[in-house]
Design brief:
465 residues, globular, mainly alpha, Sodium/glucose cotransporter
């Protein structure tokens, strides 16, 4: 599989389109507020583009095909869970987010639980996002390896440069406008691959005739407990992740915010089917392919060169966009909830913007280093772990602040935000082959929040520093 002039022309065409969107986005950034929430000027299309621009990344494309190559149809739980999460976000949580003055999830939690929970929540959710970022770097390395047979260290270094370019000068505008352009190209890419795989295989009969029903065509191919933990981790991860919250609060009004989330759900859930078709096709016809490279390998071998180039370019940008979007979320939490709160309380908007951009650079480099030490691991494995840890850190304290603000107490919220993710991590280390660590993490978080709230009562108002 060698890149031809047609492949390169297609890659360049995809990059030109997204670069144009990014340059336009950069012209919109005039302040720190514009950088993090777009100045609350976005319509529903920009909200949808931002949500999907982050969600439709390496996990939902390359990672889904990789998991389908190994286990079959159960790989759909990732994008299906994303759709469910966006529906809940749009119908159940966007109003609370939008009507608050908070820019970050920790800021929202502080209103109910006091200032102590802000840094705690930021730290644990940031650690969770780091795991997801590692998956994006691994996806980028797999693409570069399939296309150019490039060393992982060189590949990840190039990825850092692209991710920085994508987000540093655009903030949420960059991920949003570029997300819209990327969304069109991503759907073209996924549909092209899915259709070609389906008809080249001879339709549904070709797949079912070549593989047994279980596990390849079961939604529970890895076991019901593991698959339910997978979809649940995606849902709770979306509801607890800074980047998605930033998207819904960037809208110009609540109607646009909800509409953007629901459209993202409608478009995001089915996209995984195409990756699954590719993964199954490669399992049947090329079982010796490295699992992380099955998607780009299929593209280069079965699509016309120019089309393949556009698809490969789109995948590269898709991975970079998710990498950049999640990095933006981590940097926003740190600058708002740690730097401005604990380090430099009186920091100006210009100073905060500079700190955030420096932090973005550091995050990109560190995640690339970690990924290089874990090449060959399962991309969706990192993503599920990431989503679960974020959910254990923030989901129940967040739901308590939204639904039971008069019942939950500051002490209960702070302890739940600490013990939930710690239980997740400890269980993962002690029982790596036991039940998914998401379950004990969420149970500990919920029991702690309710139990301590019952015993402490709301005797004192939280310290809203």
């Amino acid at each position: 599989m060698i890149l031809t002039f047609g492949h390169i022309a297609g890659v360049v065409a995809a990059f030109v389109l997204i670069t144009a969107a990014g340059l336009y986005a950069g012209s919109k950034v005039k302040s720190s507020s514009d950088f993090s929430t777009g100045g609350r000027k976005a319509g529903w299309t920009l909200v949808t583009g931002t949500l999907l621009g982050t969600f439709v990344g390496g996990a939902s494309t390359i990672g889904t095909a990789q998991l389908a190559f190994q286990f079959g149809f159960s790989a759909w739980w990732y994008t299906l869970g994303g759709g469910i999460g966006f529906v809940i976000l749009g119908l159940g949580m966007s109003k609370k987010f939008y009507n608050s003055s908070a820019e970050t999830i920790p800021q929202y939690l502080v209103k109910t639980y006091g200032s102590r929970i802000g840094p705690i929540s930021s730290i644990f959710t940031s650690v969770g996002i780091f795991f997801n970022l590692v998956g994006q770097v691994l996806s980028f390395v797999a693409l570069m390896g399939a296309m150019f047979h490039m060393n992982p260290v060189i590949s990840s270094s190039i990825g850092v440069v692209f991710a920085l370019t994508y987000v540093l000068f655009g903030g949420i505008w960059g991920t949003g406008y570029a997300g819209i352009a990327k969304l069109f190209l991503a759907y073209f890419a996924m549909l092209s691959c899915g259709i070609v795989a389906y008809f080249t295989m001879g339709g549904a009969a070709g797949f079912t005739g070549a593989l047994p029903a279980f596990p390849w065509f079961s939604m529970f191919g890895r076991g019901a407990e593991k698959e339910m933990a997978a979809v649940f981790s995606v849902v709770v991860g979306i509801l607890s992740t800074q980047t998605y919250m930033q998207a819904v609060v960037s809208a110009k009004d609540l109607h646009e915010s909800r509409k953007g989330a629901l459209v993202a759900a409608l478009l995001g859930a089915p996209i995984g089917i195409c990756g699954i078709l590719v993964g199954l096709f490669m399992r049947i016809n090329f079982p010796g392919t490295p699992s992380a490279e099955v998607f780009p390998a299929f593209i280069m071998q079965f699509l016309p060169p120019v089309v393949a180039g556009i698809v490969l370019g789109t995948l590269l940008i898709t991975v970079i966009g998710t990498w950049a979007g999640l990095t933006l979320g981590v940097s926003t939490m740190f600058t708002r909830d740690i730097y401005q709160t604990l380090i430099r309380v009186g920091a100006s908007g210009k100073e905060t913007l500079l700190v955030q951009r420096l932090l973005i650079f550091s995050i990109c480099v560190i995640t690339a280093i970690i990924a290089n030490g874990n090449t060959g691991s399962l991309i969706l494995g990192w993503t599920y772990l990431s989503q679960g840890l974020r959910g254990c850190a923030a989901l129940f304290p967040l739901l308590g602040a939204m639904l039971l603000p008069r019942f939950v107490t500051p002490t209960a919220g702070v302890i739940a935000a600490i013990l939930g993710p710690l239980a997740n991590i400890v269980w993962f280390v002690l029982y790596p082959k036991g039940i998914d660590p998401l379950y004990p993490g969420l149970i500990v978080s919920a029991v702690t929040l309710v139990g301590i709230s019952m015993f402490t009562g709301k005797k004192n108002e939280p310290d809203k520093a």
